[in-house]
């Protein structure tokens, strides 16, 4: 993996974004990158040219990370998810607060601090939202979208993909509704528009079609 601080934070942000879009099976195109990073299309086009010149991506037919780009992305993603785990488990920050702060920490955590955080947290394999921490060898179970659970069937929340972490207000809603990894629930209703109603922790919660198609559960 590249050494800490070897690349400009902007390069790290873009490689991380490309990695996470691909991880969530979202098309890695300039429009999606612009949406995720809240930057203009021209700015993305310019950065894509710079990333390719640095040997971090290829653009032959699709935007893909090279071996060195993948290594950089995994390093940044690992540190982001470790930071989220530390900020929630040790400092008691909310999911949304931890996600925002981890976006800063990921660029400055050194190898020694990375190792220390992992040790203090007893070597976690996922972030608070259930996303795998690179370098831990985590093997996820068989997962299906919440939207595929039939009414009357139970499930266990396993993972809240990164795509949902970037949806304004959604992390706060999910945390307040106890839609958390490890929590079990029951599908109680499904609407034609894709909205699901689930019972979790004794409460009935409506989950919109966008979220229900992306929240991953163990059936």
Describe this structure in words.
The chain has 219 residues and is of the alpha+beta class. It folds into two domains: 1-138, Arc Repressor Mutant, subunit A, CATH 1.10.10.10; 144-218, Ferrous iron transport protein A (FeoA) (SH3 type barrels), CATH 2.30.30. Helices cover 43% and strands 15% of the residues. It is built from nine helices and eight strands. It has helices spanning 9-23, 30-37, 41-53, 67-89, 95-105, 111-120, 162-165, 170-176, 209-212, and strands spanning 57-58, 64-65, 144-145, 154-159, 184-190, 196-200, 203-207, 216-218. The strands form two sheets. It has a six-stranded antiparallel β-sheet with strand order 3-8-4-5-6-7. Strands 1-2 form a two-stranded antiparallel ribbon. A hairpin with a 5-residue loop joins strand 1 (57-58) and strand 2 (64-65). Helix 1 crosses helix 2 (30-37), helix 1 (9-23) crosses helix 4 (67-89) and helix 4 crosses helix 5.
Short précis:
By secondary structure, the protein is of the alpha+beta class. 43% of the residues lie in helices and 15% in strands. The protein has helices at 9-23, 30-37, 41-53, 67-89, 95-105, 111-120, 162-165, 170-176, 209-212; strands spanning 57-58, 64-65, 144-145, 154-159, 184-190, 196-200, 203-207, 216-218.
